[in-house]
Specification:
Elements (H helix, E strand, L loop, with lengths): L42 H5 L28 H51 L45 H28 L2 H24 L3 H24 L10 H23 L2 H9 L1 H12 L5 H15 L20 H21 L11 H22 L6 H25 L2 H25 L5 H45 L15 H24 L6 H15 L6 H24 L7 H19 L6 H15 L6 H27 L6 H24 L8 H27 L3 H5 L1
Length: 755
């Protein structure tokens, strides 16, 4: 529309430019003769030389075809100068408006942060543990009435991790169109590269590809400076694609002799170099795409580069070195954050951090899986490899806890658990590769126990409940659990060997009843059995020492006694001889009983009661069974077991427990009576039939004695329940003996009955 005051129709001759004689041109108001003059729509319209300065119509000739403005006039250049000056002043005006809004928002943010600090201090004093929610900066609305239509107020950068400025909303249609456009451009770049390879020489296609790549960098950076962020990021994606197409072209054209190099080494170097380029580009332009791709390329780049350079090593070592190097390179996740500067806002870098940690975790698992394949010709070479994996995992867990104490600690727990696992299996891996069971049975569990106890001691010694200290404590706990799992699995081997030796001794004694001499060996003593028991004993002693140093022995003494009791039981068969093994288990039973009586009288050690009772029952039962291996030892075992059972009734227990002990003693006495009758008649009666009759006669005699005892209260400690138990046991034994003896007598002739 025309400016106010302008007249296009009905002008006087003077208004049409007729200057009367004697009139001075400098005294005229030329604004009345401007005619059609539209206000510029944007800064670009003010400074444009391709549009008419009056009606904004595109110029084809030097005279506007719409408003007939002649731009060959000497004053036309002055229009350009004035337009640019006006654009500069309007831009400065817009900057002043933005400065006012910025200072206002900063003052409000500072006031909000001061209020938060005061609230936090008050909460700390009252110990209410209330966390105040951070106040976001107020949303800054643009003044559409005074600002040009293409511009908006500058964004307020975030001052802290808890203050987030609202980001402009973008249409999903625009985003989809941008993604589709960039994807099509990337596909077109691939086809253009193929076309250039087919139709141009090496120099021509190199220049074309390099020019397109540089242009994409320049365009993306320029758009980012003009705050066209979404479009700039899309062009940056295209630039990334072009860079890697350039790397492919360099190798395909054999530039710098790259065609003859190892493929892994070339692409590893390409990824590392491009990562450095992209990170530098981000520092200059602030494009997030460059930041993300730069960090994402470091870990795989190092893996490929190191793997390609270590071709002289064997395949297992090469893979391990590559994965371990990539894991070490993953420490860059510690630097993904960017503090606020005068020109750039603060960046959390969470996507970059998650990507790098994910790739580092994959590399760490790869190193863990390939550590056992390092240097196959050297069996123990895998142990240092596993220790290296443990060290790398510990480094990452420490960095994560130090840099991100407020974030969930899943990644730190994964790294810590992997480190504990690798450290615990390090020695076991070398022992297994060595192939000697004698080494495996002691080296693997003892080393795993040392690692576990060391990590547990570190966990208990670490302090702190908030921030990085709490994160490190949790990581130490997870590592301890992982190592303890490995130690428990490793202990199964020596425990199985020792239990097998024990079972062999008992089975031989029972299966060869009365066929062995007291000095005969029950088991053949093997070195692996000795080492298995030694491994169990060492683990028990190490646990006692570590828990004593850590101050947890008092709380875990019951666990230690359980473990020690098991070690003592399985260690007895190492004595090999029948008499020695019998004496060992019976002595253990007597010692357990004595300990129980002593602790009861001193009112000491209630937590020890259960393991000592189990030790008493187990060692007494095993000693009793082993005693039947010889005619000279069964009665010793029977007498000791009966004595232990009767003495055990002195311990505090329920009436049912005392009655059970008394009933077990009665059964042992009945069995002993039958055995004594059989042994006494064995030289004279080799026939088993009268031998059995003699045994049942002896049983019936003892049964009658038990029945008599049940009918009278011969001792104050015999309760009514005790007498009922004796009665039913004695009655059952007497009835059984009577029936069997009656059947035996019925089968005899009259003369045999009289005799």
């Amino acid at each position: 529309m025309a400016e106010p005051g302008s007249k296009a129709l009905g002008a006087t001759p003077l208004e049409k430019g007729i200057i009367v004689e004697g009139a001075s041109p400098s005294a005229l108001d030329y604004r009345r003769f401007a005619g059609l003059a539209l206000f510029p729509r944007s800064f670009s319209d003010l400074g444009s030389t391709t549009q008419c300065p009056a009606c904004q119509t595109a110029l084809v000739t030097t005279t506007c075809r719409a408003c007939d403005l002649d731009l060959t006039h000497p004053s036309a250049s002055e229009i350009v100068t004035l337009s640019r000056d006006a654009a500069t002043l309007l831009d400065r005006r817009l900057a002043v408006i933005g400065k006012i809004r910025w200072d206002t928002a900063q003052a409000r943010s500072a006031a909000a942060m001061a209020a938060e600090e005061q609230d936090a201090a008050a909460a700390e004093e009252t110990r209410t543990h209330t966390i105040d929610a951070p106040m976001p900066l107020p949303r800054i609305a643009s003044n559409a009435g005074t600002s040009p239509t293409h511009s908006a107020p500058p964004e307020v950068p975030a001052e802290s991790a808890t203050t987030v400025a609202p980001s402009p909303r973008r249409s999903s249609v625009q985003v989809i169109l941008l993604i589709v456009g960039i994807s099509l451009l990337s596909v077109a770049a691939v086809f253009f590269l193929v076309y250039a390879f087919i139709n141009f020489g090496i120099l021509g296609r190199s220049l074309i590809i390099a020019a397109v790549t540089v242009a994409s960098f320049v365009i993306a950076s320029s758009l980012r400076r003009r705050s066209l962020t979404a479009t700039a990021e899309g062009i940056a994606v295209l630039a990334v694609v072009l860079v890697y197409l350039d790397a492919f072209a360099i190798r395909a054209n054999d530039f710098f002799g790259s065609g003859g190099t190892d493929g892994s080494a070339f692409w590893g170097a390409a990824l590392v170099v491009t990562a450095a380029v992209f990170l530098a580009w981000y520092r200059l332009s602030g494009l997030r795409t460059a930041h993300i791709v730069g960090f994402a390329a470091i870990v795989p780049g190092i893996a490929l580069l190191v793997g390609g350079l270590s071709q002289a090593a064997d395949d297992g070592s090469r893979l391990f070195i590559a994965f371990a190097s990539a894991t070490l390179a993953g420490v860059v996740h510690h630097w993904t954050r960017r503090p606020a500067t005068a020109t750039h806002p603060a960046r959390e870098g969470r996507p970059e951090r998650l990507i790098v940690r994910g790739l580092t975790g994959i590399a760490l698992f790869g190193a863990l899986a390939t550590a056992s394949a390092v240097a196959p010709s050297q069996p123990m070479a895998s142990s240092p490899a596993f220790f290296a994996v443990a060290g790398l995992a510990a480094l990452h867990a420490w960095l994560i806890g130090r840099s991100s104490p407020e974030e969930p600690m899943l990644s730190a727990a994964v790294f810590a658990g992997t480190g504990g696992l690798a450290a615990a299996v390090s020695v076991a891996s070398g022992a297994l590769r060595l192939g000697d069971p004698a080494v495996t049975v002691i080296a693997a569990p003892v080393a795993a126990a040392v690692i576990t106890l060391g990590l547990e001691l570190l966990w208990h010694r670490s302090s702190g409940t908030t921030g990085a200290a709490s994160s490190h404590r949790r990581s130490a706990f997870v590592a301890t659990i992982a190592a303890a799992t490995v130690a428990g699995i490793a202990l199964l081997f020596p425990l199985a060997v020792a239990a097998g030796t024990t079972a062999t001794a008992v089975f031989r004694a029972v299966s060869s009843s009365w066929a062995l001499a007291p000095q005969d060996e029950l088991v053949h003593r093997a070195a692996i059995a000795d080492l298995a028991v030694a491994a169990l004993a060492l683990c028990c002693l190490l646990a006692a020492a570590a828990w004593s140093i850590g101050g947890t022995l008092k709380r875990r003494v019951s666990t230690l006694v359980w473990f020690g009791a098991a070690v003592l039981v399985v260690a007895v068969p190492l004595l090999t001889g029948l008499t020695a093994v019998l004496a060992g288990w019976l002595i253990l039973a007597a010692a357990a009983l004595g300990s129980l009586l002593w602790s009861h009288r001193r009112h000491f050690g209630p937590p020890l009661r259960a393991p000592l009772l189990v030790l008493l029952a187990t060692s007494g039962t095993l000693g009793y069974l082993v005693g039947w291996g010889s005619t000279g030892t069964w009665w010793i075992g029977s007498i000791v077991v009966v004595a232990v059972l009767l003495t055990g009734r002195l311990l505090p227990a329920s009436p049912l427990g005392r009655a059970t002990a008394l009933g077990a003693a009665a059964l042992v006495v009945l069995i002993g009576a039958a055995a004594a009758a059989r042994q006494l008649a064995l030289p004279a009666l080799p026939d088993p039939t009268p031998d059995a009759d003699n045994a049942f006669r002896a049983v019936s005699i003892i049964a009658i004695v038990l029945l008599v005892l049940s009918g009278f209260r011969v001792h104050a400690r015999l309760s009514s329940l005790d007498r009922r138990v004796i009665f039913w046991i004695g009655g059952a034994a007497a009835a059984s003996s009577f029936v069997i003896l009656s059947l035996s007598v019925g089968g005899l002739s009259a003369r045999e009955r009289v005799s």
